[in-house]
Amino acid sequence: MNPATEEAFATVAMGNSADVDAAVAAAKAAFPSFSRTTRAERLDLLAAIREVYQRRYDEMSAAITEEMGAPISLSDRAQAAVGIGHLDGIVAALETFDFEHRNAVGDLIRHEPVGVCGLITPWNWPINQIALKVIPALAAGCTMVLKPSELTPMNALIYAEILAEAGVPAGVFNLVNGDGPTVGAALSAHPDIAMVSFTGSTRAGVDISRAAAPGVKRVTLELGGKSPNILLDDCDLEAAVTRGAEHCFQNTGQSCNAPTRMLVPESRYEAAMEIAREVAEATVVDLPAKPGPHIGPLVSQVQFDKVQALIQTGIDEGARLVAGGPGRPEGVNRGYFVRPTVFGDVTNDMTIAREEIFGPVLAMISYADEADAVEIANDTPYGLAAYIQTGASEESQARGLAMAREIRAGMVHLNGSDIAYGSPFGGYKLSGNGREGGVYGIEDFCEIKAIST
C-alpha cells in the first residue's frame, strides 16, 4: 500500500512454511562451500554488491518512498544511503577481522560462521536493517533466509536482484515474503536455522525468542526505544530544542532511536516548550513524492490508529497539549498523515513517557538537577539510545560526558553527533541484545572455537 494515497500499487506472494522449508534447505546446501570462502573472496563479493547497489540507488530510494512514505529527499539522503554506508563499515571491519589467532596461553582461537541464519527485518528503515544483517552474515561466511516486513517488501525484492546480479552464489541468500505469524514463526522455530536476527517490536522479539528456545538457537534482537534527550542548564536552548524536536519528528517519528523524551531543567522548561511548539508548527507535512524537508505519512492504518490512540491517552492523562493533537493535518482527508505533536507537563509515569509511540510525538519532562535527570533518563524499560546537549565550555562538555557514562543505553549522542558506520548499534534492557555494525556485527554471526595444540 502507498501510505500517502491508501491505494495498492503492487502485489507480492504471501509465503508459507513450505516456502521457508525450501529456502532453508537451499541455504543449508550452500553453507559448506560458502563457509569455506576466503576473506579476499568475500571482500570481492561485497565490492560487487556495492557496485550494483550504487547503479540501482535511485530505484531503491523511490521504492522506499512509495511503500513506506519516507519523503524522497529523506530516502535519497538517508534511507537508501545506509545500504552503502553499512556495507562500507562492514568491509572496513572485514579487512582486519581476526578470524584465527593464538590467545595469551597459546591455544588457537577461531571465529567460524554460525550456520544458516534467519533474518527478520522491519518496515521503518527497511534497507538499513536488511544491510545490517545480510552484509555481516556474508562477511562471516553464513548463508541466510530473509523475511522482510510485509508492509515494505519492494526494496527487499530489489535487494535480492542486486545480490543475484553481484554474483552471490545460489542458495547463499534466500528471500521469503510473508507475515510474522506464518513465515517469521516458521523461521524462528526451524531446526536447521542456527541463528535468528530480528529487528522490530519488543513484543515480537519476545515471541521469536520463545519460538527459538527449544532449538537453543542464537537470537539477536534490536527492539524498541524511548530515548531521553537531556538538555543541560547551560546549553544553547534554541539550538538544542530545535535539533531535538526535529530529530524526533524525522521519518515521521518512526525510528527506534528517536529522542522522544526531552528532559529540560525546571528553570528553562517554559521557554523550551515554547521553542518546541514553534518547531512543531513549522514542520510541514506533505506528500512523500515531493522533494523537500517535510515529513510524510505513517506507514499504515494500524500505525495511524495506534499513534492517534496514544495522543488521546496523553490528553486524557493530563499532559499539556503544546502543539498538534489528534487527527490529520488541516486540509488532509486521506493518507496516514498525522500532526507533529508536543506534550508538556509530562511526568515519567505517563503512558506517553513509557510506551514507544512510533510517531512524531515529543514528551517534554522537567528535572530538578543532573542526578534527577539521570534518574528519569534511566527510568524506562528501554535502553537503546540517549542524547545529551551541553554548553560550549570544556567543563560543560565534560559534565555531558560524565553523564553519558551513567546512562543505561547502548548509544549516547552528545550535541547532535551520530554513531559512525561500523560502530555498534544496539541497546540495553527491553531494547534487545547483540550489536549490529562493523566488527561487532560480524562477531554476532560467528561461533568461537578453541583448539589446544
From TrEMBL:
It comes from Celeribacter indicus. Keywords: Oxidoreductase. GO terms for molecular function: aldehyde dehydrogenase (NAD+) activity. Residues 1-451 form the Aldehyde dehydrogenase domain. Its EC number is 1.2.1.3. Belongs to the aldehyde dehydrogenase family. This is aldehyde dehydrogenase (NAD(+)). Gene3D superfamilies: Aldehyde Dehydrogenase, Chain A, domain 1 (3.40.605.10), Aldehyde Dehydrogenase, Chain A, domain 2 (3.40.309.10).
